Every structure is written in C-alpha cells, then in structure tokens.
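Why do we care about 3D structure at all? Because function follows from shape, and shape follows, mostly, from sequence. That is the central idea of this module. The next example makes it concrete: a single protein chain, its amino acid sequence, and then its structure expressed as tokens.
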Amino acid sequence: MAEFLSRCTASIVACWHLMRGSQFIAVGELLPKYLPQLVILAQQPSPYQRLAASLTIQGYLLKGLLAFHRLNFSERETYSKEALRYTHVAADRNLEVAVLAYLAYTLYYNNKPQQALRRFQEILPSIDEVSPLLQSHVYTGLAHASARCNQKQDALTYIEGIS
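And the structure:
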C-alpha cells in the first residue's frame, strides 16, 4: 500500500504541474486510473487513511478544475462537495479551508452568491489557523461574494482583512 500511495502522490504532483501547462487531457486520463482506489483507501481506517484522504481531496479538486475549464460549474460543484467529504479524515486545516474556499468560489461562479457567502463565512472561525496566503484568498472571496449580495459595508470590511 505504501508503494501505491507513493505513486499516487507523485501522480498528483505531476497533475498539478500538468494543469499549469494546460495539459488538461493528460490529467483527465490520469485521474481515473487511481482515484477510485484512493477513495476506497480514504474510507477505510488504516495508518495510511489520512494520506489517502488528502490525495483523494486533491484528485477531486483537480477534477473540479477540469470541469471549470469546460465551464461546467455544476460538475465542479459536485467534485468540490466530494472533496469536502474527506476533509475530516485528512485532518489538515489548510486543506479543509482550501476545499471550503474552492467550493465557495465554485458557487460564486455558478451564480449562487448567497450560498458562496455562507460557505466563505463558515471559514471565519478558523481563519487564524491557516496560512496568510489562504487567509487572503478567503477574504478576497468574502469581499466578492458580499459585494454580489449588495452588502457593501461587509465587502469593505473583508477587503481590509486581505492585507
């Protein structure tokens, strides 16, 4: 199992790099080869469960990015929610917040600003527990969603949090 997870880790890293180079087809072909097995491992208690959950989350986020590039926001939302299912197992606050922000942005782009705003607001109680870069990403999303919901004062307040 350790060897399989090592290969999956390398594949996930490669997929992220391929996405930066617009190699979407290659990523779309790679993910189905190991994501189903990762999902199974992420659901079964073992010493490897947290790593499998983390890789599963990243696999679903990558699938969501592929859907985003096809402008399929509903599919991206589905993959975002699948990723969210594994955040409690991965037990990584940065990853959990990143997934919540990813889902919130997905809702925002899918013309659901109220839902997006609620998802962003779910992050606020743990905002100080994540990296400054991720905090800025969340505050930016909060400002955008607040503005789309005609909550000008809240949007201005969240903009102050970006620094």
